[in-house]
């Protein structure tokens, strides 16, 4: 046996008795809103059979997205946890654990085949009156999948800021499922936006503006982000920065090699302006 084979054999011997817990993600179409507006689990019998099979296969737990747009759907502070109470009870009865992702975005545009989950209806209604609560690109197009960072600290949502909405939701979740924490619920995290790939909001998927492998586009043109930019510009003593987003940054389907922003020199990501502005834009 040569050195490489001996090393490989030792590695296998030392690791074969170690176990890594495996979580299986719930399918995107597991949840829905019925015609009465009530949240429901689709195909509950099939789901029960699948969970039992996963347990028999040695799966440790289930990864579940907990949607803001389902729980606080109709009115501020009106949290309906019934769907997740039913689901978590079923998962527990199957002897499985839970890994929970709190999702504050929409996946309604993710697939033409599946009815997704929108943002809460009362948020959508505010957005109809004020599209600047969403990220907006240099052409003025909003991205309705997620609230812009520009409204994090502005009380536009029935007297609350976006961060307060998220905090209240998380607190409600923690209070509702306190008895499951650390036993059935082993991990809680915050979702990474549409598709969960940190691609939002620069790569909107639903309307064809962006195609892989384009670099995407800055989403800093809603009025709140622009106000933040103006504040930073004046703080830096550069008022001429105040009314424009990152220059020469290309468009959705540009390649990095064609965009000066991604190179060295004037107007690049390393210039004084872009260091200040991109801290706000992404």
From TrEMBL:
The keyword Transferase does not apply. One of its GO terms (biological process) is polysaccharide catabolic process. Gene3D superfamilies: Glycosidases. It catalyses: Hydrolysis of (1->4)-alpha-D-glucosidic linkages in polysaccharides so as to remove successive maltose units from the non-reducing ends of the chains. The keyword tRNA-binding does not apply. InterPro entries: GH, Glyco_hydro_14. Keywords: Carbohydrate metabolism, Glycosidase, Hydrolase, Polysaccharide degradation. It comes from the Eukaryota. GO terms for molecular function: beta-amylase activity. Its EC number is 3.2.1.2. Pfam families: Glyco_hydro_14. Belongs to the glycosyl hydrolase 14 family. This is Beta-amylase.
């Amino acid at each position: 046996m040569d050195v490489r084979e001996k090393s490989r054999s030792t590695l296998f011997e030392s690791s074969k008795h170690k176990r890594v817990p495996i979580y299986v993600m719930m399918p995107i179409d597991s949840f829905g809103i019925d015609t009465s507006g009530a949240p429901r689990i689709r195909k509950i019998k099939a789901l029960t059979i699948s969970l039992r099979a996963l347990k028999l296969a040695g799966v440790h737990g289930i990864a579940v997205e907990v949607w803001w747009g389902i729980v606080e759907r109709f009115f501020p502070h009106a949290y309906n946890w019934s769907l997740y109470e039913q689901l978590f009870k079923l998962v527990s009865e199957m002897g499985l654990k839970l890994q929970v992702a709190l999702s504050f975005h929409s996946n309604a545009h993710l697939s033409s085949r599946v009815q997704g989950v929108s943002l809460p209806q009362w948020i959508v209604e505010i957005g109809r009156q004020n599209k600047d609560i969403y990220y907006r690109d240099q052409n003025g197009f909003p991205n309705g999948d997620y609230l812009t960072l520009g409204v994090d600290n502005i009380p536009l949502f029935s007297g609350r800021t976006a961060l307060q909405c998220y905090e209240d939701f998380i607190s409600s979740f923690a209070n509702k499922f306190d008895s499951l924490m650390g036993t059935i619920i082993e991990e809680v995290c915050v979702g990474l936006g549409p598709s969960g790939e940190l691609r939002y909001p620069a790569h909107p998927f639903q309307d064809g503006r962006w195609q892989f492998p384009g670099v995407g586009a800055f989403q800093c043109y809603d009025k709140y982000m622009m106000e933040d930019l103006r504040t930073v510009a004046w703080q830096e003593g550069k008022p001429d920065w105040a009314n424009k987003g990152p220059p020469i940054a290309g468009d959705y389907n540009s390649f990095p090699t064609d965009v000066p922003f991604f190179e060295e020199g004037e107007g690049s990501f390393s210039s004084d302006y872009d260091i200040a502005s991109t801290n706000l834009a992404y």
